[in-house]
Amino acid sequence: PSLGTQRHNFVVDFVQQHKPKKVIDLGCADCRLLRRLRFLRDVEFLVGVDIKSSSMKKKMHSLAPFPGEYLQPGNKPLTIELYEGSVTEEDPHTKGFDLATCIELIEHLQLAEVGRFSEVLFGYMEPTAVIVSTPNADFNCLLPGRPKLRIPDHKFEWTQVEFRSWASGICGAYGYTVEFTGVGKVANGPESSGFCSQIGVFNRESSRSNVPPGNEVTEDVPVYNLLYRMEY
Ligand code: SAM
């Protein structure tokens, strides 16, 4: 399978294993991952967010039930929502999730925006688990032409050390633990190159309450734009 499919397979396996009910896909683009997640048994609420609405709008109707599903509705509830919005902005619709996925998203942010994104994701949305995938710059020496950036759209690509250092900072600041893995390996490649796509799987420490003591619960104003809603 393609690297993109392998990344999505990783998420699907995680969902099958950990059974989150509420899943939010940040940077969902053409909704490809959402289209796979909607079939998984335990998922009851699926949300996609992207700053660019064009690919979402083109493909969002593919999230609707198939004719057969209308005729013979399954017994599990499922609601799907798509929002146009930026992961650097707080919106109450992004809170309360069991899992947030950020598949090849962060390298599309300006490096200077990553701190804000981290604050919004781990400090405000504070999902129970987070899967972040991003290109591993250490792997680029194995790619044809040894590119510095794999596509010009990327604002940066992190080495394994850089990714781990960002992730450890997150864990300390927001009360998460992280495990590192990845997808895409070349047979007989040097061990130090790692995976083509590096992945961090974060889990919120259970001792952490949702509202830190002393913090006022502020009035949340929605800033995202709802594009699509489907209740099965
Ligand atoms: N996650 C998808 C996948 O697995 O195939 C596609 C990732 S695509 C390479 C990156 C996506 O992130 C694009 O759709 C882009 O519009 C979106 N994006 C970039 N900056 C964003 C931001 N600040 N907030 C939300 N989405 C953003």
CATH architecture: 3-Layer(aba) Sandwich
Per DSSP, the total helix count is 6
Indicate the radius of gyration in whole angstroms. Answer: 18 Å
CATH class wording: Alpha Beta
Shape: globular
Lateral arrangement of strands in the main beta sheet: 6-7-5-4-1-2-3-8
How many runs of DSSP E, i.e. beta strands?
8
Supply the CATH superfamily name.
Vaccinia Virus protein VP39
- Counting helices, strands and paired strands, the structural category is alpha/beta
- Helical content (DSSP H or I, runs of 4+): 25-40%
- Fraction in beta strands: 15-25%
What is the N-to-C succession of helices and strands?
A: HEHEHHEEHEHEEE
Q: Spans of 5+ residues with little confidence (pLDDT < 50)?
A: none
Provide a descriptive summary of the structure in words.
- By secondary structure, this protein is of the alpha/beta class.
- It has one domain (3-231): Rossmann fold (3-Layer(aba) Sandwich).
- It is 26% helix and 22% strand.
- It contains six helices and eight strands.
- The chain has helices at residues 3-18, 32-37, 54-59, 67-71, 114-125, 160-174; strands at 22-26, 45-50, 79-84, 99-103, 129-135, 176-183, 197-204, 225-231.
- Strands 6-7-5-4-1-2-3-8 form an eight-stranded mixed β-sheet.
- It is globular and about 55 Å long.
- Bound molecules: S-adenosylmethionine.
- The site of S-adenosylmethionine has 19 residues, from α1, α2 and β2.
